[in-house]
């Protein structure tokens, strides 16, 4: 059995072939990297679009709740003189935003509106309510209550919000309704 040693030209040819394969692989990696970057840019655009849609759905809920709030709270014995939308305050480093304020001379209901209500949303609203009178002193001498409103409210979230003393406003057929029992007593801040 005879084996021949590769010649310098054979080695040079193999080196050139290997070098070409590396160049092809490098080009494929560059193409793949370009596709990954395009996909990443596309996903960022989709995420931003979903975020804008979520904000628009929240605005839709606010726009649906605002006119219904007068009727809903009057049915619960709370006279309504005005409904303020997008109440915002900043005092130093601290601030808050309330989607809707349903107000009369002695009472106010701060309403948080969401497209899909979650327990975290309820907790965040409770934190807002805890600092509302301090940051909005015009409400310091009146009874402040809280409410959450949404297009989608899972039963466990509705129960949680009600257990924390919040009114729960959601769909009831083609209309909005306060989902709390008739004997519900809201927490007063």
Automatic annotation (TrEMBL):
<dbReference type="InterPro" id="IPR011335">
    <property type="entry name" value="Restrct_endonuc-II-like"/>
</dbReference>
<dbReference type="GO" id="GO:0003676">
    <property type="term" value="F:nucleic acid binding"/>
</dbReference>
<protein>
    <submittedName>
        <fullName>DUF3782 domain-containing protein</fullName>
    </submittedName>
</protein>
<dbReference type="InterPro" id="IPR011856">
    <property type="entry name" value="tRNA_endonuc-like_dom_sf"/>
</dbReference>
<dbReference type="InterPro" id="IPR024271">
    <property type="entry name" value="DUF3782"/>
</dbReference>
<dbReference type="Pfam" id="PF12644">
    <property type="entry name" value="DUF3782"/>
</dbReference>
């Amino acid at each position: 059995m005879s084996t021949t040693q590769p010649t310098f030209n054979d080695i040079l040819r193999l080196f050139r072939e290997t070098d070409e394969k590396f160049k092809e692989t490098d080009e494929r990696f560059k193409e793949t990297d370009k596709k990954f970057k395009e996909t990443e840019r596309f996903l960022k655009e989709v995420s931003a679009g979903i975020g804008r849609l979520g904000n628009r759905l929240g605005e839709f809920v606010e726009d649906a709740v605002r006119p219904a709030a007068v009727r809903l709270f009057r049915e619960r014995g709370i006279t309504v003189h005005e409904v303020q939308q997008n109440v915002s305050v900043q005092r130093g480093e601290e601030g808050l935003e309330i989607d809707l304020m349903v107000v009369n001379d002695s009472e106010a209901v701060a309403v948080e509106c969401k497209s899909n209500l979650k327990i975290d949303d309820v907790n965040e609203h409770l934190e807002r309510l805890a600092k509302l009178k301090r940051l909005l002193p015009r409400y310091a001498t009146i009874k402040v209550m809280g409410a959450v409103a949404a297009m989608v409210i899972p039963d466990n979230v509705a129960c949680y919000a009600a257990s924390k003393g919040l009114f729960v406003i959601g769909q009831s057929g083609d209309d909005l309704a306060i989902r709390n029992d008739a004997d519900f007593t809201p927490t007063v801040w």
